Amino acid sequence: MSESMPGSAPEVFAPHEAPVSPPQASEEVEFVQLLTPEGERVEHPDYSFDLDDEAIKGFYRDMTLVRRIDTEATALQRQGELGLWASLLGQEAAQVGSARSLNSKDMVFPTYREHGVAWCQGVDPLRLLGLFRGVDQGGWDPKDNNFHLYTIVIGAQTLHATGYAMGQQRDHAIGDAENGECTIAYFGDGASSQGDVNEAFIWASVFNAPVVFFCQNNQWAISEPIDRQTRIPLYQRAAGFGFPGIRVDGNDVLATYAVTQQATKRAREGSGPTLVEAYTYRMGAHTTSDDPTKYRLSEDLEHWKLKDPIQRVRAYLTRSAGVDQDFFGEVDAEADKIAAELRAGCLSLPNPELTDFFQHVYVEETPQLAEQREQFAAYAASFEGEG
Amino acid sequence: MTKITLGKGINAGLRAAMEADPKVVVMGEDIGKLGGVFRVTEGLQKDFGEDRVIDTPLAESGIIGTAVGLALRGYRPVCEIQFDGFVFPAYDQIISQVAKMHYRSMGRIKMPVVIRIPYGGGIGAVEHHSESPETLFAHVPGLKVVSCGDPVDAYWMIQQAIASDDPVIFFEPKRRYHEKAELDESVPPALPLHQAKVVRSGTDATLFCYGPMVKTCVQAAEAAAEDGRQLEVVDLRTISPLDLATIFASVRKTRRAVVVHEAPYTLGPGSEIAARVTEECFYHLEAPVLRVTGYDTPYPPSRMEEEYLPDLDRVLDGVDRVMEY
Ligand SMILES: Cc1ncc(C[n+]2csc(CCOP(=O)(O)OP(=O)(O)O)c2C)c(N)n1
Ligand SMILES: [Mg+2]
């Protein structure tokens, strides 16, 4: 095109003026925080935590139980009972805080790491193990707890969440902050590079869909650090798509709750999407198959240990809320009980039959597949009694 | 002579190609410091630098789309897709761009892009990590599709794929990454890229296979030999184009054929082989060409994969069935 464009001259950006900032050291990170790593409550001009200490005790319990479930699952993997486990260690506050801000009609679209969100939605932890044990590919009915199946293909669920939210909108289920519905999509920092995620942002924006994009920036996508995905803080991307973005201390359950609550409220009211970036850290390996010593320093881990999401709540409850040791002991005992049940349940999960899985390929099984299933069954039966 | 694994064979082949041609660049997720989730690119970034061994942002469409641009600029990109099930975000770039560029440009543009995909099951993985999507590429004009079945082929075939001016989808049998063999780098490769290999000679029936099923079929042939049956095993190596000359020669000799692959039955590579053999070797055949394959279901949860995957027993059952005619 040699002709100049009609109308006013376009704005010109020189590449060197692009607002590129180097990746920030975590000390300098700006985010919404309402509880410091030392367990001190602090004020924020735009966000406040308005629940009582009982609620904070509830968060403490959720986070402790979820961590225990996660540790037990890792142990089960080590002992060969699971093929794989993706640990949420370090991300308990991001998950519990956000999930506890949801109403019963809100819908959740998780990745493969949202065990804490699953817990808050009431999904039996045993159901989470099926995928990792290799007996199913998601053993729960999403409708039971408004918790969709885990999605392993990175980012795909953000579009599903957006479409679901468009359905809520078309059903006139929004417009009222109290009784309205919204959808929340969980995804990681790595996922933010996927086309699907960027398309989800566009859809949500132009249709003003009642969806919250909840990004757990745990600083890593397997071995790739966050600066391989972005040169600006992730939450700032939202502005370019036309909706608000906010960064929260993802290890602060009070702040995560408060920030997500505002975002969900906005969505339920009909004011559209929000991107929440929960700034946190993946304390464990990517999965049990991964060896993080290949690509990251243990100093980082030490640094983040001081920001532990559970310890700070415990410090607050002990020092400022006068909660006595009995409470913590009770939670620990409950955690042990749940872990023991989880272990027993895992060991007694029935081994599936391949014939059952033929039956779920289609709603209406095709004659060809039925024939294949019968041939397979006959072939498998020919070995019976051979020991 | 050095003893290498199949994974190390690809690693050494990549290294040799990078040493030979500064335009060879390797790109993918976690391939730098980590050396890839299977360690196939281990050490390459350290030795060739971050400009040539590129940890990409997490987006497969981006990996292949930018590889197209690099190829337009004279580079020879070797892209790693982390697992079979994650190639699909890149499918549009592969099918509509990579495969058609040479055709659309009337031959003026070449696409010397290699797309490495660890594929197949048998490793007890979760969903999307065990698939065999080779047909979805072999069906597309403009793409060449190969799979290595042993460490020595791994070493040479990756170099031949990189040297190819046509785009090559390079399927790596992930459950065979640790298989070992002796490699003598000074002996040139026995075969060109698109030629099949008779790995075991026999007279009673032919097993056609590739990738992870080569080992299975060799074992089946060994077991059959104990029962007095001499099976020929042909490692196809190239799925598109098929080496029909080798396939037909074997069938004319043994008069019976079983095709074995992990990919589903319907419209898998076995369908094409059965059709071509029927067309060209009809009067030599004593039995219809049979297929022993994965079933026409999504890859099942791993506790059932042993039943899903063709194994020694299922291959021998297929042989029994062709022998019965
Ligand atoms: C489309 C796709 N490509 C690659 C993978 C392999 N993979 C699994 S998890 C992962 C990293 C994801 O990082 P992030 O989004 O930050 O989530 P996190 O694992 O840190 O929670 C990759 C590359 C995948 N699951 N899906
Ligand atoms: Mg991450």
UniProtKB/TrEMBL annotation, chain A:
GO terms for biological process: branched-chain amino acid catabolic process. Residues 1-22 are annotated as: Disordered. Keywords: Oxidoreductase, Pyruvate, Thiamine pyrophosphate. It comes from the Bacteria. Its cofactor is thiamine diphosphate. One of its GO terms (molecular function) is magnesium ion binding. The keyword Oxidoreductase applies. InterPro entries: Alpha-ketoacid_DH_E1_comp (IPR050771), DH_E1 (IPR001017), PdhA/BkdA (IPR017596), THDP-binding (IPR029061). Gene3D superfamilies: 3.40.50.970. It holds the Pfam family E1_dh. Residues 61-339 form the Dehydrogenase E1 component domain. SUPFAM superfamilies: Thiamin diphosphate-binding fold (THDP-binding). This is Pyruvate dehydrogenase E1 component alpha subunit. It comes from Kribbella antiqua.
From TrEMBL, chain B:
The keyword Oxidoreductase applies. Its cofactor is thiamine diphosphate. One of its GO terms (molecular function) is magnesium ion binding. It holds the Pfam family Transketolase_C. Keywords: Oxidoreductase, Pyruvate, Thiamine pyrophosphate. The keyword Oxidoreductase applies. InterPro entries: THDP-binding (IPR029061), Transketo_C/PFOR_II (IPR009014), Transketolase-like_Pyr-bd (IPR005475), Transketolase_C (IPR033248). Signal peptide: none annotated. This is Pyruvate dehydrogenase E1 component beta subunit.
